Task: inverse folding
C-alpha cells in the first residue's frame, strides 16, 4: 500500500467506529465457537485497524494478544482506546501479515476480521498455519460471493475493488481450501446485515462523505477513492443478496 493510500485510509476509516463490517456481538459469537482454549490463550490478531474487535477479544479471552497492522496511526489509536478502557493485555506491533516474524507453533488462536483479503484466503490459510500450535484455532471474516449469478454491473464493480488483489471466493471454494490446507471446519456464519454492515460501518461512512468531499475537493486521487466508497455502499444496498461477509472458525489438525 503506497503512502498516499495509507493516508486516505487513516483519514476516512480512522474516523469511523470500525474499518470494516462487524460488531462486538459477532466477535463474541465467533469466540464462543472455540472449545477448550487455555485459560490465558496466546492470540495473534491480524490487520487490527483501530482495534475495536481486538479490545473485545482481549476482554473475552483474558489472553495475551499481539495486534498487528501496517498503519502506525491505527495502532496508536488502538493504544489510546486501551488506555481509555483500561485494557492491558494487548501488545501492538507494526508487522505485515505476509511477513510474520514469530516462531512457529506460538499461538493458541489466530484472529483476522476483514483483513485476509489483502493476501487472499488461500495464502492466509497456508502461511498462518505455521504460527498456530497443533489444535489451535484460526478465525477470520471475509467478503464472499453468495451467488455468482450476479448482475454484470456488480461483477464489474467487484473486479475493480479487487484489482491487484486475489479474487473474491465463494463458500464452496473456501470450504475446499480449508480441507486442502489441513484444517477442521468448526463453524461458519453470515454477518448480520443491519447491525454489522449498516449500523456499524456503512451508515457512519455515508454520513462522513460530504465532509470528505469538501476536504478533498482539490485532490482528484482521494476524490476518486471516495467515489469508489460511495459506489461500494450503493452496490451493497442493491445487491447484498449476492455477496456479503462470512466468519469462519477453523482448527489446525
Ligand atoms: C478492513 S480493515 C479491518 C480492520 C479491523 N480488523 C476491523 O474489523 O475493523 C483491514 C486492515 O488491514 C490492515 N492491513 C492492510 N495491509 C496489511 C498487511 N500487509 N499486514 C497487516 N495489516 C494490513 C489495514 O491497515 C486495515 O487496518
Result:
Amino acid at each position: 500500500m503506497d503512502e498516499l493510500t495509507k493516508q486516505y485510509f487513516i483519514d476516512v476509516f480512522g474516523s469511523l467506529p470500525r474499518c470494516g463490517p462487524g460488531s462486538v456481538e459477532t466477535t463474541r459469537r465467533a469466540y464462543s465457537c472455540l472449545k477448550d482454549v487455555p485459560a490465558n490463550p496466546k492470540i495473534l490478531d491480524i490487520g487490527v485497524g483501530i482495534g475495536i474487535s481486538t479490545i473485545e477479544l482481549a476482554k473475552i479471552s483474558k489472553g495475551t494478544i499481539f495486534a498487528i497492522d501496517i498503519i502506525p496511526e491505527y495502532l496508536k489509536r488502538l493504544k489510546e482506546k486501551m488506555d481509555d478502557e483500561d485494557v492491558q493485555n494487548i501488545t501492538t506491533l507494526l508487522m505485515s501479515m505476509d511477513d510474520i516474524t514469530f516462531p512457529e507453533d506460538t499461538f493458541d488462536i489466530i484472529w483476522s476480521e476483514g483483513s485476509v483479503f489483502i493476501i487472499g484466503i488461500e495464502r492466509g490459510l497456508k502461511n498462518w498455519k505455521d504460527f498456530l500450535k497443533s489444535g489451535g484455532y484460526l478465525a477470520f471474516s471475509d467478503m464472499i460471493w453468495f451467488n455468482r449469478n450476479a448482475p454484470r454491473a456488480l461483477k464489474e464493480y467487484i473486479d475493480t475493488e479487487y484489482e491487484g488483489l486475489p479474487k473474491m471466493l465463494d463458500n464452496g471454494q473456501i470450504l475446499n481450501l480449508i480441507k486442502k490446507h489441513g484444517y477442521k471446519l468448526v463453524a461458519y456464519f453470515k454477518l448480520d446485515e443491519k447491525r454489522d454492515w449498516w449500523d456499524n460501518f456503512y451508515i457512519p461512512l455515508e454520513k462522513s462523505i460530504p465532509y470528505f468531499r469538501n476536504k478533498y475537493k482539490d485532490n482528484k486521487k482521494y476524490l476518486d477513492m471516495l467515489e469508489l466508497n460511495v459506489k461500494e455502499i450503493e452496490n451493497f444496498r442493491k445487491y447484498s443478496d449476492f455477496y456479503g461477509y462470512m466468519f469462519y472458525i477453523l482448527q489446525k489438525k
